[in-house]
Amino acid sequence: MNHLATERALSAPAYDVAGIRAQFPILERQVHGHPLIYFDNAATSQTPLAVIDTFRDYFSRYNANIHRGLHTLADEATAAYEATRETVRGFLNAADRREIVFTRGTTEAINLVANSWGRANLMAGDEVLVSLLEHHSNIVPWQLLASQLGIRVKVIPVDARGVLDLDAYRALFTERTKLVAVNHVSNAFGTVNPVGEMAAIAHQHGALILVDGAQAVPHQTVDVREIDADFYAFSGHKVYGPTGAGALYARAELLEAMPPWQGGGEMISSVSFDVPTTFADVPHKFEAGTPAIAEVIALGVALDWVSGVGLDAIGAWEAGLLERATAEVSRIDGLRILGTAPNKAGVLSFVVDGAHSQDIALLIDQLGVAIRTGNHCAQPLLAHFGVTATCRASFAAYNTLEEVDAFAAALERVIGMVR
Predict the structure, then answer these.
(1) Please, which pLDDT band fits residue 13 given cuts at 50, 70 and 90?
(2) 152: left (phi > 0), else alpha (psi -120 to 50), else beta?
(3) Those residues with Cβ within 8 angstroms of residue 230's Cβ, 6 or more apart along the chain or in another chain
(4) Of 74, 97, 96, 54, which is closest to residue 299 (Cα–Cα)?
(5) How far apart are CA 247 and CA 109, in angstroms?
(6) What pLDDT band is residue 8 in, cutting at 50, 70 and 90?
(7) Quick check: 132 and 158 in contact, CB under 8 A?
(8) Which residues are catalytic?
(9) What pLDDT digit, counting tens, does each position of 64-90 carry?
């Protein structure tokens, strides 16, 4: 698609980006005297007024602990909290609300699987396959189990575009392979992985699959039953919600068989010093202690907001932004894009000859542009491509063509300063 066609597609009246932006008060601020251009969405997206107002509503009207009280405030808080469980179930198309466990985010969800399912089902010599594209949160928990239980962590390679090698993936399976742990979308490169196909291959070999969906749920419709995922995790703060709240989907029969990971209040049925302690039914067996109540309620509002805009519309809009940004920055001498998969989400990761990524990020911030720099918690991936850090621009539903053009111009100016 050429620039004119892209601009026409992105300016179609069906997608009201101005109306969307008006719902995000932070986008009105200036940074160093320039309008804020926020291109750090893969790290944390901004939150709309509907989500922000949820906190004021909760703390001013029905702030109370959940599941434990008989008074009105406790009932209202419990109802709002559990309503989010149903929202998440519908958002992921899970079969049963019992398959949704609230966590602090993707990292905690993966650690829950590793420490509950993993410790109960893995033994020395068993294998877990992870991809080179993984965030550290989907590498380190399995490395910890490897050091403690003697399991093997085997790596699915990628090609020069940052695309997983499915032939190599198939060849990695043995009779000892028990789990595949892979992201749906790479946070560092934006590569969209064929997780449905990968799940089918894993299941053919009798293995389970855990999908890190943190970077997928803001950009595309996710159907865990269509994927046939055994586990699927995501974080609220990537999908226009608050930090401190996320969810793990897991098939009900897996959760029923898994032992608790954390102990405390709420996750028990009865506690005694005389007979064994018994545990609550799923999902509450995995939700020890007082949760982030307001954050979970706000997560439900965020998912409703996304559904209201429409994930297909958001994905198409962001695809146009990525296409425009890729074309614009590719004109800059010495700039090299890392991650050129044909199927990408709205992430643009790059390095510049003769310029340090931190210098670029610091200087472009002076022009009001927020991007991310560093290893993006993907050190093995970047090392494979011979770099220690990249600059990363990442897009969201509220970003515009004008912002993309301003970013490209600012980037070119900054690169001229640091070389």
Answers:
(1) low
(2) beta
(3) 199, 208, 209, 210, 250, 251, 254
(4) 54
(5) 7
(6) very low
(7) yes
(8) 377
(9) 999 988 999 999 999 999 999 999 999
